[in-house]
Each structure stands twice: as C-alpha cells, then as structure tokens.
Amino acid sequence: MHKKNYILLIAFFFSLIAFPQDMNEGDKVRIKGSVKGKENYEPISNVEVSTNRGVFTITDGLGDFVIDTYIGDILIFQSPDFDTVRYRINSDEDIVLQVENYTSSNYKERKIIGNSSPYKIGLDSAQYYKKISIEKSIDFVAQSIASIGPRGNKKELAKALTILGQIYIYHKQYDLAITNIQDALVANKTSPTTILLGQAFLLNKNYKEAEETFRPLLDVKKMIPFQKIELYEGLGDVYKAQGNLEKSLSFYREGLKVAEKNQVSPKVIDLNSKVAAAFAASDRNIEAQDYYDNSLSLSKKQTPQRAIQEGDKVADFYNQASRFNDEIELRKQTLKELEQLPSKVVGKPKSILGADSITSQRINYKIAKAYISQDKLTEAIPFLERSIIEADKEDDLVVQKDATRKLSEVYRYKGDFEKAFENYQKYGTIVDTFYFRKEQEISRLARLNRDIAAKQNRISSLEQERQLSQSKYSLAVTEQQLFEENNKRQKWLIYSLLFGMFLLGIAAFFYYRSNNQQKLANNLLALKSLRTQMNPHFIFNALNSVNNYIAKSDERSANRFLSEFSVLMRTVLENSEEDFIPLTRELELLELYIKLEHSRFPDKFDYEVQIDSNVDVAAFEIPPMLLQPYIENSIWHGLRYKEVKGFLKIEVRQLTQSLLQIEIKDNGIGRKKSAELKTQNQKKQRSKGMGNIKKRIAILNDMYQNKVEVGISDLYEDKTGTKVVLKLKKD
C-alpha cells in the first residue's frame, strides 16, 4: 500500500488579469496544464484527463496535456498513483496539478503488477470501440502511438497504424485507410499488412493498385494458409470487378482448395458463394446453383446469422434467374429463421443514406416484389403491409418508403383507386421525412469527416511532437549537466576566469541558436495555425452552396456538387500540411473551386484561366490556398452583385526566369461599391480569409526572404472592377 497522496491544484490567472475577457457558460476553451509531484516537481505521465462530456487525453512524458472543453464543464484527473480530482472550468487559465509525496516508483510498481502498457491498453480500447465510435477508436490509437516514446518501436508503430487502417475500413473511410496502412508498411513490412492494403485498394475501387499489391505476394513461400486464402480471394475479387471472370474463377477456386484443405469453414462458405456469383455473372446458372447449394448447406452448420446471410444471397440469385417461386420459398424460410433470433437484424446497419443489413421488413418487401413479378398482386399485398408495419416500428424509412409506393401501385393495378391514392399520400409524407433526415445525415457526415480529418492530422503530427518533447528533455538534461560542471570547475581557482569566459561563450552560442530555432518554430506553428483556420473558413463558405440546392430540393445537383466538393476537399486536406506546393496543383484546385462557384452562379459570371505558353509552371511553388480567397472575394463581393453577367480572368505569365506574375481580374462592382453594400456588422468585421492571407505572406516572406508579393487595385478609373497582382519568386 502506498501512503496517501495529497493534491494541490493551481490555476494561473495572470493572462486574465492582463487581458480581461468576458466568458460565459458553454463557451469553448482550450485548457493547457500539467501534472507534477509537489516536492520534486517530477512530471507524472499517463494521467487520464477527461471531461464530463467524454473528451479524453493523457499527460505526456513531461506531464503536460492539452484538452478542448467548455466553460462550466468538470475536468477529471484519474491515475492509480493518487485519488481522482475534479475541477470545474471557469476560464481558459493554465492548470497545474501538484501531488504531494509522489515518487516515480508508484507508477513503475503499478506497471509491473498490472502487466499492461499504455500502448497495449490504447490498442485494446481502440479495437473495443471500433464498431461503436470511430472518434473514440481514433483517439485511443493516437494515445497508443503517443505512448511509444520519442525513439519509438517501429513494429509497435506499424501495428497501431494497421489497426487504424482497419478502423477506417470498417467505417468506409478507404482513402484514410490506404494512407495509414502504407505508413505501417514503411515502418514494418509484413504479408498480413500488405494483404490489408490490397483489400483497402479493392474497396476503394483502385483495382490496378490492388492487383499490383496482391501479385508480388504470390511469390512469398512462407505464408500461413489463412493469408493465402485471403490473397487468392482478393485477386479473385479484383479480376471479377474488372470483368475478367475466368481469372476470377481460377483464383477463387485456388483459395477454396486451401480453405477446404485447412478446414477454414467461414472461408469455404465465402468462396463457394463467390464462385457461384462469378458463374452467375457468366450466365452459367447450373454451375452457379451447385456452388450456391454448397454454400447454403455449409452455412447451416455455422451460426443462424450466417445461414440467413447465405440464404439471402441465394434468394437474390433466384430473383436474377427469374425463379420467383424458389425465391419466395427460400425467403419465407429465411424469415422464419430471422424471427427466431433475439435480434431481428443480421449484418451491419447503416445510416438513412442506405442499409446493408437483413431485416424482416426487407425480406417481406422482397417476397412481395417476387409475387408482383408473377402478377400475383393479391398474394403480394399482405407482405407489403407487414413490411410497412415492421419498417415503421424499426424506423426504417428506406423500406417503408419503397413498400408504401409499391402497395399504392398494386392497388392501382387492381383498380382500387381509393386505397391507391390513400397509400400514395402516405408515401408522400414518408418521402418528406426521408429527405429531411437525409439532409440531417449529410450534415452529420460532413461534421464527422471534419472531426476525422482533425484527428488524423493529430496522429500525423505525433512523431514531430515526440521529437520536440525529446529535444526539450535533452536540453533540460544538458543545462543540468552544465550547472553541475560549473560547480566542479569553481574549485579550480586558477582556471576560474578562463572557464567562466568559456561558459559565457557557450551560453551565448546556445542562446543565439536557441533563439533562431525558437523563431523558426514559432513561424512554423503560426503558419500551421493560419492554415488550420483557412480550412474551416473555406469549408463553411463552400457548404453554403450545398444548402442552396438542398433548400430547392434539387437532390441531383446537391449530390453532384457534394461529389465534386469532396474531390476539392480531399485536395485541400492533402495540401494543408505543406508550406509550398507545385503551382500546377494550386491551379488545378482553383479551377475546380471556380467550377463549383460557377455552377451556383452561372448567370453571374464567366471565367477564363490563361497560362502563357512560355511559363514553366512546374518550376514554381506556391503556398496552398493563397489565391483562393482573392478569387472568392471577386465572385462574392464583385461579380455576384453585378446587374449584368461579369467576367473573371486569371492570367499567369513569367516576367523573368525566376519571377512569375499571376493576375486575378474581375469586372465586378468594385471595392468601393462592395464596401457600401456591406451591413454594419460586416463593416465591423474584417475578412478572416484575407486577414489570414496577409499574415501568411508576412511570415513566409520573413522565412524565405520576400518570396511572395501581392498588390490590389481597381481595374478601371471609375472604381469598378478589381485587379490582384501576385508576384512569386523562385528559389
């Protein structure tokens, strides 16, 4: 038993005294703090710091932490080394938690007894939350990576990144999965991780990359049977997706041989089913039937859920082959098996945007459709009604909508127009609810994608943070060693003066170097902060365009816009960590952005991007998102208010071998007229995008010696139109 630890919590209010600010209950704040021993000021790592809202972090090797919370929330400190501490957040002051009678042996002893490391705990927790909460899973992986330490273990890092890739695959974030699995292979290349990368490429429909990933593994001799099965299955999936059914069948059968030989029952069922599907796609229904019979028979020896899944696949095959009686009989049997389960759902339920689960309402609906395909309308009606009732009970709007419309059509075909009209009215009401929830789901997914991107960026920067922490620790150790050495040298009176001058020179050198490094670090941190501010600002403005289509119920335009917007956002996020990117990439991003804005305001302006043939575009680099705010201002504050259709022109020409000039010209209403149209509230606020651009240019010119120069002027003498001239110097 350890002796009692006493805790002293100190909040620093100096910043509030010097810079008073009004804060209300619910305001979001970022709290920085540390947990240390009171007597020796020893940092206490791996302390769990959380809030009553569920936000979670742990202290690093220096005992420091940063957490985002809200005024009025409760901050909770938990560790086996001291009693739990709770503290209410009243402002954004820094916090220091001091623990009396603390020694590092407390944690070491607990670690030996518990036989669990923060790394393993983090990965176990990530696996636990994988199907429950993607946000928590990613947080636990980040904590696990952070606990590896400054020097790091490459195998442990690879394992953590692989698990992160699996999490992204489960939640269908395939691009992020590919990125993290590739990083895992860089840290430690293994066959299972390579197979996982091929599967991620396959799910993302990158079939060529998937084939290039899988193919080299065929030459690996020492591979366990299950990995061989996954390899053959993956290649079969690739060739089936590419339409090469013969190659697909060949690899499926190879995988099936290995699975049967090693009695891997789940894979035997999977591969029988996939061979059958490949035969069915080749219109070889007799062979397909044999393999489907095998998969269905074998699945009945597994769990009831597996038998239901295979039954649904075979019923779909019967439907495609117009064997409706066989389909109905099998679906009725599947329905009975499903109703005997505690949970009436088999598979993974999804959002309102779609579902890939097997439910009783969905089976009833499919039975009804099979009857309708045979013109047995009377037999179809009870199944449609049951489907609607069960879908309403389970809040399954997709099935409820489709079944209600189908029921209306059946009554219309039967000549019962009163019931047909009644059900069509119900269908209209369900459709309104469906599209309302769909809009909510789209909004939720957009927020989730932003959160995931932020968490992924945090994981990407963990290695740099660990290196910085190690540098700070090494510097502290060095300073301590210098101090001790100084005390020893003082005994040598003869050399005291010479030694003092030597130390002074060393200190001056370290101070000068530290000052330069600190200045560089501050500049890099400021640039990262400004880029981070630009992304939410840009996303917010762009999402306003989606709201316009949703408000008009123009689902097709909204979907098309979101598809193009997702490509734009992926490009923006990929560039967000770079100080400079190739000019070609920036111009491609701008053309995509202007295209999106033009799709919203086609009557307001036309545009042209003109690049002089003498320009060596590939030779120049530019800060990402530097030109977009100027173009955004031209469209939103110049061309949008013009009574007649305006014109936006971007010209790129090379002045000298090392100097490039980019002009952005619009014949809009001009800066003066735009300022007059602003509301009082707008006049009090400066453009966040333009303000960030000015700061970025100032920092970049300080770091790279006047690399970027920007000038803004009126295009015409009557103060209409705007011209932005940006000059970019090549290193």
Outline the secondary-structure elements.
Elements: E1 7-12, H1 14-18, E2 28-37, E3 48-51, E4 56-58, E5 64-70, E6 74-79, E7 82-88, E8 94-99, H2 105-114, H3 118-128, H4 134-146, H5 154-170, H6 174-187, H7 191-203, H8 207-214, H9 225-241, H10 245-261, H11 265-281, H12 285-299, H13 304-320, H14 324-339, E9 345-346, E10 358-359, H15 360-373, H16 377-393, H17 397-414, H18 417-489, H19 496-551, H20 555-575, E11 581-582, H21 583-600, E12 605-611, E13 621-622, H22 628-639, E14 646-656, E15 659-666, H23 670-677, H24 680-684, H25 688-704, E16 708-714, E17 722-729
Parallel strand pairs: 2-8, 12-14
Antiparallel strand pairs: 1-8, 2-5, 3-4, 3-6, 6-7, 9-10, 11-13, 14-15, 15-17, 16-17
Describe the biggest sheet?
Answer: 5 strands, mixed
Give the strand tally.
17
Strand order of the largest sheet: 12-14-15-17-16
What is the tally of helical segments? 25
Q: In oligomeric terms, what are we looking at? A: single chain
Radius of gyration: 32 Å
| Terminal CA distance | 64 Å
Taking pLDDT < 50 over at least 5 consecutive residues as the criterion, the unreliable ranges are 1-6, 10-21, 105-115, 349-355
Mass-distribution shape = globular
Strand content: 5-15%
The average pLDDT score comes to 79
Task: Report the structural category.
Answer: alpha+beta
Secondary structure: helix percent: 55-70%
What can you tell me about this protein's structure?
With 731 residues, the protein is α+β, with helices and mostly antiparallel strands. Helices cover 61% and strands 13% of the residues. The protein contains 25 helices and 17 strands. The strands form 5 sheets. It has a 5-stranded mixed β-sheet. Strands 1-8-2-5 form a 4-stranded mixed β-sheet, with no helix packed on it. The protein has a 4-stranded antiparallel β-sheet with strand order 4-3-6-7, with no helix packed on it. Helix 3 (118-128) packs parallel to helix 5 (154-170), helix 5 packs parallel to helix 7 (191-203) and helix 17 (397-414) packs antiparallel against helix 18. The longest helix has 73 residues, at 417-489.
